[in-house]
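call fold(seq) -> tokens
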Amino acid sequence: MYQSYQGERKPKKLYKYYNKNQIELVLEKSRSNQRDYLIMLTLWRTGMRVSELTKLKKKDLGEVITIRQGKGSKDRIIPFHPTLKDLLMLYSANLNLEDVLFPITNAQVWNICKRYQGELKVTPHTFRHSFAVHCLKEGMNVRVLQKILGHSNLNTTAVYLDLIGEDIKEGYAKIPW
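ret:
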């Protein structure tokens, strides 16, 4: 993936991610603040980028979330759980269709994540990585994940398969031979 000028291969950088239980602990800390909770829950359950979250409008919520002008100015759709949809619709009940759901900056979303992270180092992108790894662990097809994440190249998404490999080694080590 990375090459030096001498042609030597550098090791791949594995992304930081957290398992479902760790993410749930971070989310639990934010439950007293509806907006903050929904921001982080949306990042966790959709894998969207922070810049996409801060541009998300009420009209983009339907049977799927429509990401308009995402990275590379590409549109895409993200399926989302009915519970998240209900929570977002309830939160946005008083908004007009053109209103942004969370009218805050990317930096403010980073600060929200930091506020509730506890001992974990949680960023908006950590939610994205954790989403991707969780989906693959639960059996999602890597091509489907590629489309949800908005990656042009399957190799970009395939990096998450290496993270799964670490879990496989851990699981194998638990077997009492």
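Strands lie at 2-3, 9-10, 64-67, 76-79.
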